[in-house]
Amino acid sequence: MPHFIIDCSQDILQLKSPDELMNAVYEVADETGLFAPNDIKVRLQPYQYYRLGTHKKNFLHVFGYIMEGRTTEQKAFLSSEISIRLSKLLTDISFLSVNISDFEAATYSNKALINPENTDKNRHFGL
User: Fold this and answer.
1) Which SUPFAM superfamilies match (predicted)?
2) Is residue 25 within 8 Å of 81, Cβ to Cβ?
3) 27: phi then psi, degrees, rounded to nearest 5
4) What is residue 113's DSSP assignment?
């Protein structure tokens, strides 16, 4: 936790490499101090087929999924900082957007939580 998924039009990868885009999001998430660096996960999904508005040529959207417990202000800051960093990298983009959503702790599960030795139900158990 957290997970950042970058959806973008395929042509964005001609402007910046996948590593540049993913590193920008990772670095911003790390710099906020909201997450342990080893917990941050970023992935990128380019789209070959998409439909945009008239005279719009490309897009990038970051979906951020984080464990509940951060304030609205913290989430807004994270979203804004990611937008700012990516805007500097992609100065001529038609659509650039970010949204941050909460995972509900009560309904979240992972490999650590289902481990029978994890009696404290620590979601970082064994990492």
Assistant:
1) Tautomerase/MIF (SSF55331)
2) no
3) -60, -40
4) T
pLDDT per residue as tens digits for the range 40-89:
999 999 999 999 999 899 999 999 999 999 999 999 999 999 999 999 99
Q: Evaluate if residue 100 carries a pLDDT over 90.
A: yes
Distance of alpha carbon 57 from alpha carbon 11, whole angstroms: 9
Provide the token pair at 64.
């951020």
Residue 44: C-alpha distances to residues 12, 13, 34, 54, 88 (Å): 11, 10, 21, 25, 18
Residue 34: which pLDDT band, with cuts at 50, 70 and 90? very high
CB distance 86 to 72 below 8 Å = no
